[in-house]
Design goal:
This protein is an alpha+beta fold. It has one domain: Beta Barrel (Catalase HpII,  Chain A, domain 1), CATH 2.40.180.10. 33% of the residues lie in helices and 19% in strands. Strands 1, 2, 3, 4, 5, 6, 7, 8 and 9 form a 9-stranded antiparallel beta sheet that branches. β6 and β7 form a beta hairpin. The longest helix is centred in the first third of the chain and has 22 residues. It is globular and about 55 Å long. The N and C termini lie far apart (53 Å).
């Protein structure tokens, strides 16, 4: 089975990955991503929005880091207590819930949902391991993996999505890139057709890995409290999800919380189709799940929305998240997708903010 999945894009070694082509791929991804962003705006007769996750709603929050040593084995506690998680503290945060599509569709169109938030580490007593590390950004979706496996798959899919004729776009690709596109689109269909729930009821994951100290690599999760309040969604309202989140923040007495956990890359325990692989396999393949039964999550913090803090349209436009730029050396994202998205997201953000200044 591994032989089959490798043909569809899962890579086992650098011989499969072709690192020499990555820089060129990333440059091409940036250009195609900007084109996709511009096309979405033109088709909807609007100014530029975010290149992906175009539609969303923002609020303020608090991010409480727990005492990770309490009640834990000292070895595990030491692994957890890295960077901003090295000591307890409560930090202000800004959070955005959104839909993954590059277009601003009805909230009830099949899609993946997201939560992104930035944690302000400038307060007194915050853990600042290096100069300039004053903010940590996180970005998650209500999925356990990304459908796009790596930069070659990323480039293949954006070529098809930006082609004037998708069939011709597919025809122009190599057989292996066609298989990558097929696998990506199949995973998108599965992930986007989940039950539609209020943003505050969804379980989110980082999908991709990050450094956690000098030697560890982790993924993140944000688990909603079962007591998070929400009203029934109004399906006739195309803005039903974002309006419900805004209503909740402005009106409800109890604010939603999300337990934040980390999942260690433990390659000695993790398996794919029954086989173990080296750490690089788990880092480079964004579409391969880290099974929670083999690598459990450990709760280290809690995100709590702040009552009355819904951000207005203009204030929300200025909000952005950059998991690469707003990280420390020991919390930076790793893996092919993270390397690929950093440049395209920065270019997309610059284009959007520039367009907003000229409105």
């Amino acid at each position: 089975m591994l032989f089959v999945t490798r043909w569809f894009g899962v890579t086992a070694t650098d011989a499969d990955r072709d690192p020499a082509r990555e820089h060129a791929d990333i440059e091409a991804i940036k250009e195609k991503s900007l084109l996709m962003q511009a096309n979405a705006a033109a088709q909807q007769h609007r100014t530029l929005a975010r290149g992906t996750h175009a539609k969303g709603v923002c609020a303020r929050a608090e991010f409480e880091v727990f005492d990770v040593a309490q009640g834990r084995d000292p070895v595990l506690a030491s692994r957890l207590a890295q960077g901003m998680f090295a000591k307890p503290g409560v930090y202000p945060a800004v959070v955005r819930f959104g839909n993954a599509d590059s277009k601003k569709n009805s909230d009830f169109k099949a899609d993946v949902r997201s939560i992104s938030f930035s944690v302000d580490l400038t307060r007194a007593g915050a853990v600042v391991p290096e100069p300039g590390y004053e903010r940590q950004d996180f970005s998650m979706q209500n999925t356990t993996t990304l459908p796009i496996n790596d930069s070659p798959a990323f480039l293949a899919i954006v070529k098809v999505l930006t082609a004037r004729n998708p069939a011709a776009g597919l025809w122009s690709l190599s057989l292996k890139d066609n298989l990558r596109v097929i696998r990506t689109l199949a995973l998108v269909q599965v992930q986007s057709h989940q039950a539609i729930k209020p943003y505050q009821h969804l379980h989110y994951g980082s999908n991709v890995p990050f450094r956690h100290g000098p030697t560890e690599v982790v993924k993140f999760t944000a688990i909603p409290s079962a007591e998070n309040p929400a009203r029934d969604l109004q399906k006739e309202n195309p803005n039903g999800l974002q309006d419900e989140l805004a209503r909740h923040v402005q009106e409800d007495g109890r604010m939603s919380t999300f337990d934040f956990g980390v999942q260690f890359l433990d390659s000695d325990r993790m398996t794919y189709w029954g086989k173990r692989h080296d750490a690089k396999f788990w880092i480079e393949n964004a579409s391969v799940e880290w099974k929670e039964s083999e690598a459990p999550f450990h709760k280290v913090a809690r995100l709590t929305l702040v009552k009355g803090s819904h951000l207005g349209v203009e204030e929300a436009k200025a909000v952005y998240f950059d998991v690469t730029g707003h990280s420390s050396t020991n919390s930076t994202p790793v893996g092919s997708i993270n390397r690929a998205r950093a440049l395209s997201e920065a270019a997309s953000r610059a284009a959007r903010l520039s367009a907003a200044q000229h409105e």
